[in-house]
C-alpha cells in the first residue's frame, strides 16, 4: 500500500512544527547539516569514475540522507514551520512501501518495480520531452512518444496556449489547458491502440486547481495514472503542493514526487547532490505518500546532468537507494544539446547506462537544458531506453559501464557550455505521421552503432 | 594584520573575525575608502569563482554576509570619509503564480555582494506588491523574475500598474528568467533584460549612469 495513510498526522506538523524564518532555513539549517553529514560519513566525489563501484560509500550516503531528512525536516513556506518525522516513522514507511505497483490499465498495465544495482531486470521506461510545445504540435508529439516500443509510461509536453489563448498561471486558461492536455494524450493513446498506457499527467497544471480539474476516470487522469507533486529546492514545500498530494491520495491515483537537487546550489557539490537526492526519496514517501520519486538533479550553470559531476551523484544516489530500500525512483536525464545532434544522443546514452546499472528506472529525456519550446523528441528517449534495456539484459557491471561512459564523455564533455541547440520537433519529425525524418533516424542509427562498438549489445 | 588578511576572511565567510579585524584596522588608521575598494575586488573574485562553480552558493552567501558585517563596522568611518557607495536599491521577487526561486535568489546575492541594497519579496508575489514595496523603499529598480510563459504576463502587469499610477519614471524595471528575452522586455516596455546573474550588477549600474 502507499503511505498516504499518515497524511493527516504529517500535515498537522505544518501548524505544530517548530517555527523558523524561511531566510534561515537553507543557510542555517539545511546546508550546515548536510556539510556535517558529508564529513561524518566520509563521502567523497571521484571525478575519474562517473559510475563508481563503492558499496560501502553507497550505504554511507543512504545513512547520511536519512539523518539529513530527520535532522533538517521539511519546511512549509506558508506556515513557516518545519515538519519533522522520527526514525520510527521513517522505518514504518519503508516497511509499508511496496517494491512494485501495477500501473496503467487493462492490457496496457505494466509492473513498475524496484531494481537492484547491476540488475538484469530491464528498467521501467517513462518517456517525456519535459518541455513546452506549440499547441499545433501537442497531439502529434504525444503520438510520437506513444509510438515508442519501449515506453512504459508517458508524460506529455506542456501547453503554453489553449485554443489560441496564452495560458495564464492559475487562471481559467490553465484549467482549460490542463483538460486539453489530457484529452490529447488520452486520444493519442487510444488511436495508437494502447489506451490504458500509464500516464504521468498533466505537466500543464501549475497549480493544485489545474490537477484537480482533470481528475476523472472517464475522460481525464485515471486512477491507474500518476501525477507529480514538486518539492521546492531544497527541502521546502507549500500548501499549494500539499493540496496536490492530499488530492491525489483521496482521488486514488498514484503520486510521484518531483525533485531536482541543484549541484552548485544549497547542496554544494556532487557529494551533497547525491545525499540530497536520496533524502528526497524519503520525503516523497513520507511527506507526500508518493509511490515513486522523479529525480532530476542538475548543474546550476548548465541546467543539465550528463557531465561527470552529476553522473557520479546520480550513480551513487541510485546505488544508495537500491541497496538500502525497496523504493521506486526514476532518473530523469537533462541534456545540454538539442534534438537531432549527435551530442544529445551520446549524452542520453550515458545518462541511461549509468542510471540503469546503478539501480534506477528511467525517465528520458529533457533536451536542450529543458529550456526551449519544441526542442525535445522521442528519439533521444529511444536511445536512452534502448541503452537501458541493453545494459540490463547484458548484465553489464558498474566497472564496464564506467569505462564506456568515460569514452563517450570524452566526446562531449568539453561542449557542455556551448552545446548545439539542434532542431525543433517539426524540423526533425513528420508532424502529421508523428515519425522521425530520415535524416534524424540516420543520425540516431549512426550514434547507436558507435555505442554498440563500445560494447553495448542492443537487442535489436 | 593586513588588508589581505581581511580580504581572505571575507572570502572565507568568517564574519566575526572579519568584523574584528576591520574594527582594528580602522582604529589603527587604515583608509576606509581603500578598504572598501579592496573588498569590492575580493567580492568580484568570489563572484568569478562562483560563476565557474569553483565555490558554491552557500560559500558566496557566507562571503556576502561577512562583507555586510564589515561594511556595518565601517559605516561611521565611511560616512566621515565622504559616505558609503550604495550602487542602487532593488526590489526583487518572483512574479505571482511562479514558485521557481533559485534564479532570483542568485541574482539577489550577486547584487548584494556587488554593493546594491536588495529587498527580496520572495516568490509568488503580486504585481501590486512589487510596486508598493518599491515606493516604500524608494527603490531605484524593480527586478521581476518569471520562469514560466504562463507567468510572464505578470511582469507586464507591474509596468502597467506603474503607468496607471503615473510613476513609471520613478523606477527602472528589470526582468529575467529562462523564458524571458530582450524581445519580451521590448514588448512590455521593461528597462532591462538580463540573461544571467553575472551580468546584472554592471547592467544596472550602466542604467543609472
Ligand atoms: C528547478 C525547476 C523546478 C523546481 C523549482 C524549485 C524552486 N523552488 O525554484 C520545481 C520542481 C518545484 C518545479 C516545478 C514546476 N515547474 Co519547473 N523547472 C525547473 C527548471 C528545471 C530549472 C529552473 C532553475 O532553477 N534554473 C536554475 C536557475 C539558476 O536559472 P534561472 O532560473 O534561469 O535564473 C538565471 C537567469 O534566468 C537569471 N534570472 C532569473 N530571474 C531573474 C530576475 C532578474 C530580475 C534578472 C535580472 C535575472 C534573472 O539569472 C539567474 C542566474 O543566472 C526549469 C527549466 C529551466 N531550464 O529553466 C523548469 C521550468 C521552469 N518548470 C516548468 C514547469 C512546467 C513546472 C511545473 C508546472 C511542473 C509541474 N507540472 O508541476 C511546476 C510549476 C510550479 C509553479 N507554480 O511554479 C517549465 C515552465 C514551462 C513554461 N510554461 O514556460 C520549465 C521551463 C521546464 C520546461 N521546459 O517545461 N520546477
Regions of chain A with pLDDT < 50 over 5+ consecutive residues? none
Query: How many structurally independent domains of chain B?
Result: 2
The total beta strand count of chain A reads: 21
Helix fraction of chain B by DSSP (H/I, runs of at least 4): 55-70%
Structural class of chain B: alpha/beta
Order of helices and strands of chain B: HHHHEHEHEHEHEH
Q: Which CATH class of the largest domain in chain B applies here?
A: Alpha Beta
> Of all protein chain pairs, which has the greatest interface, and how many residues does each chain bring to it?
A-B, 32 and 23 residues
CATH superfamily of the largest domain in chain B: Cobalamin-binding domain
Helical segment count of chain B = 9
Give the uncertain stretches of chain B in residue-range form. none
Which percent range fits the helix content of chain A?
A: 40-55%
Shape of chain A: globular
Please name the fourth-level CATH homologous superfamily of the domain at 100-135 and 225-453 in chain A.
Answer: Monomethylamine methyltransferase MtmB
The geometry of chain B reads as elongated
Structural class by secondary-structure content of chain A: alpha/beta
Q: What's the main sheet of chain A like?
A: 8 strands, parallel
Bound molecules: cobalamin
Q: Ends of chain A: how far apart?
A: 37 Å
Amino acid at each position: 500500500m502507499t503511505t498516504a495513510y499518515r497524511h493527516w498526522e504529517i500535515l498537522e506538523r505544518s501548524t505544530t512544527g517548530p517555527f523558523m524564518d524561511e531566510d534561515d532555513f537553507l543557510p542555517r539549517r539545511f546546508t550546515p547539516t548536510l556539510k556535517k553529514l558529508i564529513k561524518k560519513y566520509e563521502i567523497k566525489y571521484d571525478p575519474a569514475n562517473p559510475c563508481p563501484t563503492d558499496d560501502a560509500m553507497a550505504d554511507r550516503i543512504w545513512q547520511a540522507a536519512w539523518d539529513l531528512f530527520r535532522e533538517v525536516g521539511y519546511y512549509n513556506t506558508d506556515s513557516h514551520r518545519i515538519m519533522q518525522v522520527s526514525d520510527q516513522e521513517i522505518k514504518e514507511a519503508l516497511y509499508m512501501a511496496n517494491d512494485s505497483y501495477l500501473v496503467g490499465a487493462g492490457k496496457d498495465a505494466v509492473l513498475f518495480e524496484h531494481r537492484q544495482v547491476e540488475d538484469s531486470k530491464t528498467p521501467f521506461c517513462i518517456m517525456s520531452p519535459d518541455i513546452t510545445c506549440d499547441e499545433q504540435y501537442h497531439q502529434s508529439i504525444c503520438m510520437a512518444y506513444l509510438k515508442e516500443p519501449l515506453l512504459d509510461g508517458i508524460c506529455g509536453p506542456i501547453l503554453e496556449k489553449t485554443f489560441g489563448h496564452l495560458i495564464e498561471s492559475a487562471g481559467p486558461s490553465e484549467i482549460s489547458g490542463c483538460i486539453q492536455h489530457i484529452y490529447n494524450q488520452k486520444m493519442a493513446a487510444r488511436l495508437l491502440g494502447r489506451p490504458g498506457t500509464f500516464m504521468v499527467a498533466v505537466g500543464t497544471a501549475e497549480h493544485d486547481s489545474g490537477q484537480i480539474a482533470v481528475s476523472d476516470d472517464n475522460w481525464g487522469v485515471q486512477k491507474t495514472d500518476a501525477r507529480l507533486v514538486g518539492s521546492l529546492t531544497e527541502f521546502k514545500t507549500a500548501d499549494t503542493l500539499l493540496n496536490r498530494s492530499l488530492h491525489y491520495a483521496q482521488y486514488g491515483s498514484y503520486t510521484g514526487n518531483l525533485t531536482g537537487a541543484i549541484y552548485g546550489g544549497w547542496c554544494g557539490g556532487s557529494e551533497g547532490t547525491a545525499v540530497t537526492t536520496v533524502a528526497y526519496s524519503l520525503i516523497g514517501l513520507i511527506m507526500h505518500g508518493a509511490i515513486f520519486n522523479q529525480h532530476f538533479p542538475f548543474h546550476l550553470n548548465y541546467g543539465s546532468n550528463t557531465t561527470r559531476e552529476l553522473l557520479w551523484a546520480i550513480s551513487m544516489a541510485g546505488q544508495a537507494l537500491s541497496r538500502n530500500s525497496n523504493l521506486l525512483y526514476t532518473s530523469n536525464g537533462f541534456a545540454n544539446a538539442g534534438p537531432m545532434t549527435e551530442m544529445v544522443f551520446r549524452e542520453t546514452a550515458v545518462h541511461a547506462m549509468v542510471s540503469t546499472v546503478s539501480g534506477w528506472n528511467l525517465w528520458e529525456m529533457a533536451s536542450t537544458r529543458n529550456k526551449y519550446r519544441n526542442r525535445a523528441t522521442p528519439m533521444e528517449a529511444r536511445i536512452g531506453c534502448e541503452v537501458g534495456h541493453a545494459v540490463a539484459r547484458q548484465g553489464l557491471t558498474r566497472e564496464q559501464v564506467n569505462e564506456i561512459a568515460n569514452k563517450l564523455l570524452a566526446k562531449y564533455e568539453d561542449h557542455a557550455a556551448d552545446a548545439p541547440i539542434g532542431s525543433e520537433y517539426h524540423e526533425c519529425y513528420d508532424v502529421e505521421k508523428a515519425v522521425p525524418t530520415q535524416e534524424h533516424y540516420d543520425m540516431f542509427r549512426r550514434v547507436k552503432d558507435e555505442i554498440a562498438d563500445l560494447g553495448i549489445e542492443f537487442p535489436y | 594584520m593586513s588588508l589581505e588578511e581581511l580580504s581572505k576572511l571575507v572570502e572565507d565567510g568568517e564574519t566575526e573575525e572579519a568584523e574584528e579585524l576591520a574594527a582594528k584596522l580602522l582604529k589603527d588608521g587604515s583608509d576606509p575608502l581603500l578598504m572598501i575598494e579592496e573588498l569590492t575586488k575580493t567580492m568580484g573574485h568570489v563572484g568569478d569563482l562562483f560563476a565557474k562553480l569553483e565555490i558554491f552558493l552557500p560559500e558566496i552567501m557566507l562571503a556576502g554576509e561577512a562583507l555586510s558585517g564589515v561594511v556595518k563596522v565601517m559605516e561611521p568611518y565611511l560616512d566621515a570619509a565622504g559616505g558609503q557607495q550604495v550602487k542602487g536599491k532593488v526590489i526583487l521577487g518572483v512574479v505571482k503564480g511562479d514558485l521557481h526561486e533559485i534564479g532570483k535568489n542568485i541574482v539577489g546575492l550577486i547584487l548584494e555582494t556587488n554593493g546594491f541594497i536588495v529587498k527580496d519579496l520572495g516568490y509568488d508575489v503580486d504585481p501590486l506588491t512589487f510596486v508598493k514595496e518599491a515606493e516604500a523603499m524608494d527603490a531605484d529598480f524593480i527586478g521581476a523574475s518569471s520562469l514560466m510563459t504562463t507567468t510572464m504576463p505578470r511582469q507586464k502587469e507591474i509596468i502597467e500598474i506603474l503607468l496607471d499610477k503615473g510613476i513609471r519614471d520613478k523606477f527602472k524595471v528589470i526582468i529575467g528568467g529562462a523564458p524571458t528575452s530582450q524581445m519580451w522586455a521590448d514588448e512590455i516596455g521593461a528597462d532591462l533584460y538580463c540573461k544571467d546573474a553575472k551580468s546584472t550588477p554592471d547592467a544596472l549600474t550602466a542604467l543609472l549612469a
